[in-house]
């Protein structure tokens, strides 16, 4: 393990980035529990996941850049895949739920638009 070789300034930056990423992800998870409807709940975890993972991976990049033990290809791939797949998953889930609710007659689409306008 090469963690003792990490300078203090780098260890503090890595710790800050990892804790910040974990905190943002936690806030997104709490939004999943706190918000009422599916359409409100679907946004909080995706934003928390993308930004939280970004900070955690940034901390990993700082750590392994300072140690110089390996290239940063793994971290770049993680950022690319999370950034691409999370919004696509959000969009597919929301569209599937909207389609289901429209076909079952469970939702008034006009009231959904009014809710989003009030939130802005």
From TrEMBL:
| A single MF term (Gene Ontology) | sodium:proton antiporter activity
Q: Which residues form a coiled coil?
A: none
Q: Which domain of life is it from?
A: Bacteria
Q: What is this protein called?
A: Cation:proton antiporter
UniProt keyword terms in alphabetical order? Membrane, Transmembrane, Transmembrane helix
The secretion signal range is none
What InterPro entries does the database record attribute to this sequence? PhaG_MnhG_YufB (IPR005133)
């Amino acid at each position: 393990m090469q963690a003792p070789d990490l300078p203090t300034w780098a260890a503090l930056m890595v710790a800050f980035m990892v804790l910040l990423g974990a905190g943002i992800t936690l806030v997104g998870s709490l939004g999943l529990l706190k918000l009422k409807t599916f359409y409100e709940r679907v946004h909080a975890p995706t934003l928390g996941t993308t930004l939280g993972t970004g900070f955690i991976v940034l901390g990993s990049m700082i750590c392994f850049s300072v140690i110089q033990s390996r290239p940063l290809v793994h971290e770049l791939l993680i950022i690319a895949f999370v950034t691409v797949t999370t919004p696509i998953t959000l969009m597919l889930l929301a569209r599937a739920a909207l389609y289901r609710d429209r076909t079952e007659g469970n939702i008034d689409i006009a009231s959904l638009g009014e809710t989003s306008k009030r939130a802005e």
